[in-house]
């Protein structure tokens, strides 16, 4: 009886030891897995911080955005592959299946694939960058982000507009921020009894005195037409891209005030109606 009791105690002791050993191994494995994920996270966090400190100062906002996206995607893929490896999933077989699925999805979503390809052209061509003001298909806005599928714009009335990259590649695009200066065109008319040389001198002088107008290129006048009510012209002046809106409004007010001061009339359309009785 004593021998039986001793044997049972020994058996229970060995089983308990196995459970404790297995539990310790699992706990150690979980801790190692968590530690690996933490190291991956810290590594990519440090990589992003170093890029921001040493590289981003010499790069455009567009390039910075691309690098940030690349680091984020790399971190995500690395973490996913680490989890698959920990779970014992054959990554090579999974990649093969993903390739087949990708082909099927590609045929089913040709528009998305076309946008991705177009996005690569948009990024490499560098026709615009983040912060530029562009116009595409009657939509004007400031570029907020450039992605593989689309470009995000913020309009002047604070609307978010997503433009597919395929549309950008196919349509005519205007980048108002590409060059440092932009021309202001102010159209107006003067009455037929106006001295055109004097009016030209006054208009150019008004433009030169405007605080937003740059000296080079100098303001200029182009007389355009003898209309029914007056002689039409266009005043051209240059300003910085950042001051375009303010310069246009300011110059418009300055011209109106100066012409009134100088006694130069801006005519309005007139219609003369002659009755048949008057003709007779």
Q: Could you say which structural class the secondary elements and strand pairing correspond to?
A: alpha+beta
Poorly predicted segments: none
The geometry reads as: elongated
Ends apart, CA distance between termini: 149 Å
Radius of gyration from CA coordinates? 36 Å
How many separate structural domains?
Answer: 3
Helix content: 55-70%
Supply the number of helical segments: 8
Q: Widest sheet: strand order?
A: 4-3-2-1-5
Reported for the largest beta sheet, the result is: 5 strands, antiparallel
Give, in order, the helices and strands: HHHHEEEEHEEHEEHH
The residue-averaged pLDDT reads 80
Q: How many runs of DSSP E, i.e. beta strands?
A: 8
Percent strand equals 15-25%
Report on this model:
This protein is of the alpha+beta class. The protein has three domains: 89 residues; 56 residues, SH3 type barrels (Roll), CATH 2.30.30.60; 82 residues, Alpha-Beta Plaits, CATH 3.30.70.100. 56% of the residues lie in helices and 19% in strands. It contains eight helices and eight strands. Strand 3 and strand 4 form a beta hairpin. It starts with a helix and ends with a helix.
Which helices and strands appear, and what pairs or packs with what?
Layout: H1 2-55, H2 61-86, H3 91-108, H4 110-125, E1 133-136, E2 139-146, E3 150-155, E4 160-164, H5 165-170, E5 173-175, E6 181-190, H6 196-209, E7 220-226, E8 231-240, H7 244-262, H8 276-279
Antiparallel strand pairs: 1-2, 1-5, 2-3, 3-4, 6-8, 7-8
Helix pairs in contact: 1-2, 6-7
């Amino acid at each position: 009886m004593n021998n039986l009791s001793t044997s049972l105690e020994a058996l229970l002791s060995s089983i308990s030891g196995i459970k404790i050993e297995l539990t310790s191994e699992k706990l150690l494995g979980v801790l190692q897995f968590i530690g690996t994920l933490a190291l991956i996270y810290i590594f990519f966090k440090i990589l992003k911080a170093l890029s921001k400190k040493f590289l981003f100062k010499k790069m455009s906002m567009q390039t910075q955005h691309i690098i940030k996206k690349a680091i984020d995607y790399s971190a995500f893929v690395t973490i996913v592959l680490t989890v698959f490896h920990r779970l014992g999933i054959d990554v090579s077989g999974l990649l093969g299946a993903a390739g087949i699925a990708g082909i099927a999805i590609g045929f089913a979503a040709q528009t998305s694939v076309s946008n991705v390809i177009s996005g690569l052209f948009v990024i490499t061509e560098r026709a615009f960058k983040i912060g530029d003001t562009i116009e595409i298909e009657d939509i004007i806005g400031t570029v907020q982000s450039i992605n593989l599928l689309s470009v995000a714009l913020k309009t002047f009335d604070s609307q978010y507009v997503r433009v597919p990259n395929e549309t950008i590649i196919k349509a005519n695009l205007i980048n108002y921020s590409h060059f440092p200066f932009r021309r202001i065109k102010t159209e107006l008319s003067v009455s037929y009894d106006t001295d055109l040389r004097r009016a030209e001198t006054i208009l150019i002088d008004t433009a030169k005195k405007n605080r937003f107008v740059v000296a080079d290129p100098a303001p200029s006048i182009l007389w355009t037409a003898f209309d029914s009510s007056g002689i039409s012209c266009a005043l051209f002046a240059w300003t910085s891209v950042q001051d375009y809106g303010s310069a246009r409004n300011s110059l418009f007010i300055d011209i109106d005030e100066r012409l009134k001061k100088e006694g130069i009339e801006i005519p309005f359309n007139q219609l003369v109606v002659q009755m048949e009785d008057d003709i007779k």
